[in-house]
Write the structure tokens for this entry.
Amino acid sequence: METLFPRVSISLEPEVIDPAALFAGPMDEIWLEIGFGGGEHLAWQAARNPHIGIIGCEPFINGIAKLVSEIDEQGLANVRIHGDDARFLLEKLEPGSISRIFLLYPDPWPKKRHNKRRFVNGETLALIARVLKEGGELRIASDIPDYVAWTLAHIRRHNLAGESRFEWLAESPGDWRERPEDWLRTRYEAKAVREGRTPAYLRFRHERAPGTCEKPHESAI
């Protein structure tokens, strides 16, 4: 941890951060995971996509330590870590520099008085839209139905603003109720399923061109 983490840690000193420059060699794309927890999904993606640079954001030291251990054990050269709130990094990343963003099982803050602390809101969606490439993908997973509804409502609100939009890629219920093959089932997800909670897997394509918001396909509901 003491020797490896400084080598993979991201400095926020530059005014603008070019994520491609964080890696030793050229990468085909750069992906970002917000709140990677224990890092198992991020490490799994990094191992299977060695030519993709993956940045992980996590404020908790235990999660960072677990991911650093995975980087060391698996020899992952394509991972970089921001050990703080993802918003600080999103504000500095070069616009249109990220091809895919993951937000998997964010803290649901279930009490209504705490809903304002949820990561998905108008401000963070604007930050995500700023750094995602045209055609880039946003993936969000949650096992809390209220958070899923909250997310779709805020996505729709963002789309109605007209500056950019997130197109929900679901065309049938299976597209968001069934986990895609390239989407790892984490220990957290397995626990949620054991306890009777059904995850939702939401995928959105980012469109920069202004336009009116389209409703999700009726067959996807």
Q: What stands out?
A: The mean pLDDT is 91. The chain has one domain: 5-220.
